[in-house]
Structures are given as C-alpha cells and as structure tokens.
Amino acid sequence: MDFDYTPQEEAFRKELRTWLETNLPKEYDPETFEQLDQEERFQIQLGWQKKLHAARLVGIHWPKEYGGRGATVIEQTIYQQEMARVRAPGIANPLGISIVGPTLMHWGTEEQKKRHVPKILSAEEIWCQGYSEPGSGSDFASLQTRAVEDGDHFVINGQKVWTSYAHKAHRCILVVRTDPHAPKHKGLSYLLVDMKSPGITVRPLVQITGDAEFNEVFFEDVRVPKANLVGEKHQGWQVAVTTLMFERANFGIVYQMEPALRRLAALAKQLEVNGHTAAEDSSVRQKLAQLYIETQAIKLNGFRQLTRQLRGDPPGPEGSIGKLAASETNLRLVHLAMEMLGPYSQMALGEKSGPDGGYWSRRALASRLYTIAGGTSEVMRNIIGDRVLALPKG
Ligand SMILES: Cc1cc2nc3c(=O)[nH]c(=O)nc-3n(C[C@H](O)[C@H](O)[C@H](O)COP(=O)(O)OP(=O)(O)OC[C@H]3O[C@@H](n4cnc5c(N)ncnc54)[C@H](O)[C@@H]3O)c2cc1C
Hints:
By secondary structure, the protein is of the alpha+beta class.
C-alpha cells in the first residue's frame, strides 16, 4: 500500500481547493445550515449540485462519456476529503449519483443510459430507491409489491416504505415481484418508474430530528412501460445487489469521522467540568484516544478497499466492514459528546445559551440512521461472518 500522492493527484487537490475557495455558496454557513428548514436546505443543495455540474465536479468517478471525469479512486478520495474539510453542503441527488447512475451504466440499455444518466448528473431528475417494504427490510428479497404484465406495460400494486427523497424525486428504482411462484430471489424485476405516474401516492414520515426525508410510497395500478425494465425480467435480484454494493461502498459517514472527532476534541478543550476542562479528565482523554484509533483504523480499511478497486475489482462485501465500523464508531463518538455536555446535551439545535448550539444533540438524534439505512449493523455482521471471514453458520 503506497500512502503518497502522485504529483497529478496533488495537482487535483490544489485545483479543487482553489475552486472551493471561490465557489462555495455565499448563503451557505455549515454552522447554521442544519437550522434551516428542509426546503431551504434542499434548494441550497440543488444550486450546489448545478454549480458543481457546470464545473464538471459532480460524479467525477463516472466515465467521461457519461459526463464524469473518469477520476481514479484516489482522486475520488481526495474529492471526498476536500468536501469534508470545508464542510461543503451535500448534493440534491445523492442516490442518483452514488447508486442509480453506476447501476444503469452497468446494467442499463443504451436508450436508458442516454435518457437518464445526463439528467442525474445535472440534478434535473432526482431519484429515490424503492426497495424496503413494511414486511421486508433486511430480507428485502421477500418483498411483495407486484408487477403484472399487460401488453407493453407492467402494472404495479403495493407499498414501499422509508423511501428517502421520494417527496422530491422525479424517478425511482423500484424492485417488484414479477413471478410470485419462483423462489424469492428469482421472481424479482428492477424497474425505472416515473414518480408522476397516475396511482402513486407519497406520504412523508417525520424522523426523530423533525425532518421528513423519507416516505411511504403507495402504488395503485401504476403503469410502467416494459422499456423501463433494467436487466432481464425475473433477474432483478442481480441488478438490485449491484446497487447495494455501490451503496455500501459509498457510505458517506466514513468521511465525516475525522472532522467530527476534531470537533469533539475542540469541545473537550473548551468545556468546563468540575473546575477544569473536559480534556483534562483522564477518562475523557482515554475515550478520545480510543476514538482516534478507531477512526484511523476505519480510514486504513477504506484504503484497503481502495486498493481492491484500484486493481479493477468491483466493490465487494468488504464495504460492509467500513459501513459497520464507521456507523458504530459514530454512535460512540456522539455518546461521548452527550456525556461531556451533561445537561447541555438536551439543548435543541440553534439554542444559543449552550456551549455547542445544539450541534451534538442534533447529531446524536441522527446517528442511529447510519446503523440502519443501507443494511443494519446485524446484517453487516452476518455478511462479514459469512462472505468475508467464511465462518461456519450456527
Ligand atoms: C434514514 C433511513 C433511510 C432509508 N432510506 C431508504 C430508501 O431510500 N429506500 C429503501 O428502500 N429503504 C430505505 N431505508 C430502509 C432500510 O434499508 C431498512 O430500514 C433496513 O434495511 C432494515 O430493515 P427494517 O427497517 O425493515 O428492519 P428489519 O429488517 O425488520 O430488522 C429489525 C431488526 O432485526 C434485525 N435483523 C433482521 N434480520 C436479521 C438477521 N438475519 N440477523 C440478525 N439480525 C437481523 C435488524 O438488524 C434489526 O435490528 C432507510 C432507512 C433509514 C433508517
């Protein structure tokens, strides 16, 4: 493993830093961003993605023929590091960029690629992912949403849940059951669905943070052209798994760990507890040191994953290690913040009288999502035991 960057990679970092210095949105302040209402935040993210797109700085890992830069895996890492360093806003179409575009490039027909891929990059079309159902989450291959053939169309009936961005999305990658008699993994198909189709109802669900970023989505006799099938009919499981591999390999929390830990260490130096700063308390120091070790291990595991990708291998089950470790370490990190803040930890975001403006309470409320979304920690452990360590099943 070579930890040094090449001159070209350093040049890319410099180009990006210079661009970020002049182009971060003027109205954007990372300290107060989370206090804006959901729609205001979305508009900033939309404007940001369009600006990045104009500079060819969105989807940089995509091949040039699809509007990317064909960036190497190392350049992507530099990109993520630099965005995290300036705490840049997220983009409006994260699922489109991280999972839908790459899946379509792999499995889509030429027509599907031409039709959808450019609009994913430019955020003209926002995408959501319709996998989970009320009775099918971890075991999503058991899903029940039905698609029945009718001439040139599939007719969809059923319900999805926890569908992030569905309230904003123009399109959805939808996994449906086309053969109810086949074994559960073999009767699925993968469709591209226009969210404005008659018969679709989106009902937002409010999360513990107060935001409503995910939704219930109901399908009642929704007609989807057969031309929108990705991969073969009844073979949707293979396509769906490709999407999941891209999802786990891209799990953003990995890049947030170091900046979050630096912020926590700064808080420890500033916070007065029993007549001295929290940083002077030996148990706090030990916990911070432990978190530092874990954060570095997560980073190194990320490099190991990169090495695999640099060799040209597709994202593999190792992505589950990074996802599990980062989301669980993040929980420990916010718990330490809560412990240090004591009663101040209960202050809501934007509350001026506390030492951190409610930043950590908000982060604590949001922290559980990472151990659930994209596959729960238990499921990640199963994958690691089974497919990485090849442990015998009990
Ligand atoms: C913020 C957020 C955003 C999301 N966005 C989307 C989205 O855009 N699209 C989408 O389709 N879904 C989305 N999800 C849903 C997510 O994929 C599911 O919540 C997740 O897969 C778990 O499924 P479940 O909630 O049905 O829990 P269940 O599968 O019912 O699990 C319940 C509990 O049982 C445990 N468990 C289940 N199976 C096993 C097993 N085999 N071994 C050990 N333990 C097990 C789980 O770990 C969990 O603790 C989102 C979820 C969150 C939190």
